[in-house]
Amino acid sequence: MSSMDKEPLFSAKNVKLLTTPLNDENPITVQVLGICSALAVTVKLEPAVVLAVAVVAVMGAANVIISVLRRTIPQRIRIIVQLVVIASLVILVDQVLKAFLYDVSRQLSVFVGLIITNCIIMGRLEAFALGNRVWPSFLDGVGNAAGYGWILIVVAFFRELLGSGTVWDYPVMEKLGLYTIGYENNGFMILPPMALITVGIIIWVQRSRNRKLIESK
Amino acid sequence: MKQGNTYIFLYSSAMVVIVAAVLSVVATVLRPYQELNIEIAKKLDILRSVEKAEQAQEVRDRNSYVEEEYDRYIVDSYVISHLGERRDDIDAFGVNMREEMRKPLEERNLPVFVAQDDDGSEYYIFPVHGRGLWGPVYGYVALMGDMNTIFGVIFDHDSETPGLGAEINTPRFESQFKGKKLFDETGEFVSIRINKPGAVPPGDHNVDGISGGTITSQGVEEMLYDVLGSYRTYFRNQKNSEI
After folding, report:
1. pLDDT of B156 above 50
2. Do B34 and A92 touch (CB under 8 A)?
3. How many CB atoms lie within 10 A of CB B27?
4. Residue range B223-235, pLDDT digits in tens
5. Which residues pair with B129 in a beta bridge?
6. C-alpha to C-alpha distance for B238 and A134, rounded to whole angstroms
7. For residue B177, which of B147, B201, B141 has the smallest C-alpha distance?
8. pTM here?
9. Beta-sheet strand order (sheet of B110-116)
10. Most exposed of A42, A122, B126, B143 (fewest Cβ within 10 Å)?
11. How far is CA B129 from the centre of its chain?
12. pLDDT at A153 over 90
C-alpha cells in the first residue's frame, strides 16, 4: 500500500458518509425505513434514547463485521448471514444491558429485541457494507443510526411532553403550573397514530427547509 | 470466486459454530451479574410493597443497601399449600410464581414473606403473577395483620405498552390499593375489582383502571383474584387463630 492512495480517516468523503444520513438521506424521514420501531418506542424519552444508542452500537458493529467478511460471504446466503450477525449483536446488547443496566433493560424489555427487525440495519448492510471497505462502512453505519436516533428522540420528546406532561419523567407541565390554568395532557399523543403524525410533521418541516428533497413534478 | 454448495455449507456451519460459541461464552460470563440483579430486584420489590428501602434510588451501593434492609425487615418466609399447611422443605425466596400458577391449585407452593416494622406491627407479603396484554404482569401484595386489608402493592410487567398498560407500575395506580379489603362483611372472598376510571364509586373492593390499558388492568384484576384466591384458606385460618 502506498501512502498516495491512503485517504485521511476523516476525509471530506468520509465525513459526508457520517453527516448525510442526518439530514439529506435520513433513513426515517427521507427513505421512510424503520418506522415500526419509531412508532413503538417513542412514548417516553428514556427508552427512545437507549434504543438510539443501542442501534448505533449494533449498526456500527454489524457494518464492520459484514464489511470485513464481504469477500467471503456466499452470494446466495448473504441475507441469512446478515441476519445472523444482526441477531447475535442484538442478543449481546441485551445480555450486557441485563447484567450492567438492569433497570434500563427492564424498561426497554421487548424493544431491544425489536432492533433485529429494524429495516435500516439490514438495508445498510445490503446497500453499503457488502461493497465497501471497513472504515467507510463503520461511518455509514454510525451515521445512519444517528440519523434514525435523532428523529426518534425528537418524536419521543414531543410525545412525552404533550402526552404525559413530562420530559425524562420530570414533570415539566406541573412545574410550569399549566394544570392549574386548565391544561390537560393529550392522551392521543400516547397512541401509536400520533407517532406517525409527528414523523409526518418532521418530514414536512424538513422538506420545507431543504429544497433538495422536494421531488420535481 | 467460485462458490459451490460445499463452500456455502461449510461457511454456514462455521458461522453457526462461531456465533453459538461467542453467545454462550458471553451468556455464561454475564450470568452471575444477571442473577444478582434479579435477586436484588426481587428483594427490592418485596421491601417496596411494605414501603421500605425507599432510598434505593439515591444510595451509591444499592445492592448492599437492599440486602441490609431485607435482613432487617423481613423476619420470616415460608411456603404453604393451598390449605394453609406449612411446607418446610422448600425455600420461599426461590419459588417461581409463574410456574406455580400453571399447576393445579392442590400442587401449588405458595410463598409467604413476613415483614416486621420498627414499631412491631407485622405485614404479610404475597407474590402475585398473571397475564397482561403482551406478556406477564407480576408483583407483591402486602396485607396487614388482619389478613384482609391491603397495606401496599407493587406491580411490574415485562412488555406492556409504555404510557398505557405499563402505567400499572406507577405510584398513581399502586397507591389506590392501600386500605382496600379482600373479604367483604360476610367473610366472602371478593378480591379487588379494577374498573373503568370513574365508572364505579370508590369502595372497599374497587380501584380505577388505566385508561387505554384495559386489558392490562383486567390482567391485574384476574391475577389478584387467582393468586390471592389460592391463599384464601390460609387467610381465613390466620384470621380465626387471632380471635
Report:
1. yes
2. no
3. 15
4. 999 999 999 888 8
5. B138
6. 69
7. B141
8. 0.78
9. B86-87, B74-80, B110-116, B122-131, B136-143, B150-157
10. A122
11. 6
12. yes
**Do B165 and B210 touch, CB atoms closer than 8 A?**
yes
DSSP percent split of chain A into helix, strand, coil, nearest 5: 70, 0, 30
Beta bridge partners, B114, equal B76, B124
pLDDT digits (tens, 9 = 90+) for B51-96: 887 777 777 788 888 888 898 899 889 999 888 888 888 888 888 8
Structure-model confidence comparison of residues B163 and B89, the more confident one: B89
ipTM: 0.75
**CA–CA distance from A138 to each of A60, A61, A82, A118, A158 (Å)?**
5, 7, 15, 17, 31
Q: How far is Cα B66 from Cα B93, in angstroms, rounded to an integer?
A: 15
- Chain B partners within 8 Å of A100 (Cβ): 33
Does the distance separating the beta carbons of B19 and A88 come in below 8 Å? yes
| Residue A2 to chain B, least CA–CA distance (Å) | 26
**Shortest CA distance from B10: residue in chain A:** A74
Sign of CA dihedral B228, B230, B236, B237: negative
Give A216 to chain B, closest Cα distance, Å: 40
Can you tell me the mean pLDDT for A149-158?
A: 92
Poorest-confidence range of A137-146, B94-103, B160-169, B185-194?
A: B160-169
Provide the grid cell at A29: 424521514
pLDDT value, residue A210? 82
